Amino acid sequence: NMLAPGKTDVYNIAWTYGGNGSVSNWLNTSYCPWTTKPTSFKSVNEKTDKMQGYANTIALQEYNKAEGENSIQRAKPIVALVAFESNHPAPTKSSGWYWPSVKELEYVCWGQEATEGIGGRNRLNEQFRKVNGAMEFGVSFYWSSAEYSRDNGAWSVDFEDGYVYGGGSKSGNAYCVRPLLAF
């Protein structure tokens, strides 16, 4: 879960501020101003088989910049990630905090070798209980950094049962967001 800036409680957020813009469409247009975009990176519209949360996060950061700070189509978790990073600096020899893809959320919830369930969530929560102030994974839906459709949907994982869902309304549903990092 991501902490609200200036608060200590957990909160859920929508994927956007109310708009239904498509990041994937933007990435594939001639007016996409992201000059350092890798040529192989075409979309944040993925199925559940790609571990590309870090790349999605970079693309979503660029999308938010292009949209401008008042756009309702911006990816809200990217804005919250900035606040999270300032309150919780990432270790220097890590990837830095990023918003996970569907596959990465599956690994967290299911466990690395599993294909369903909540074993990973349970094992992680056991470890979090040993750290003072660490936040456990709740029994909630978690947004992925991936769009489900090019209009209004995004992928999520339900940490109550481990099921993956596509089509959660980016502007209408409020789910948890949990940043990850790689060492």
In words, what does this structure look like?
This protein has 183 residues and is α+β, with helices and mostly antiparallel strands. Helix content is 28%, strand content 10%. The protein contains five helices and three strands, in the order H-H-H-H-H-E-E-E. A three-stranded antiparallel beta sheet has the order 1-2-3. Strand 2 and strand 3 form a beta hairpin. Helix 4 packs across helix 5. The chain is globular. The protein starts with 22 loop residues before the first helix and ends in a 14-residue tail after the last strand. The N terminus is likely disordered.
Keywords:
183 residues, alpha+beta, 3-stranded antiparallel sheet, 10% strand, globular, disordered N terminus
Low-confidence stretches: 1-9
Q: Give the spatial strand order of the biggest sheet.
A: 1-2-3
Query: What is the average per-residue confidence, as pLDDT, rounded to a whole number?
Result: 84
How many helices in DSSP terms? 5
Q: Return Rg in Å.
A: 16 Å
Q: What's the main sheet like? A: 3 strands, antiparallel
Given helix and strand content, the structural type is alpha+beta
Secondary-structure element order, N to C: HHHHHEEE
Distance between the termini: 20 Å
DSSP strand tally: 3
Strand content: 5-15%
Shape: globular
Helix content: 25-40%
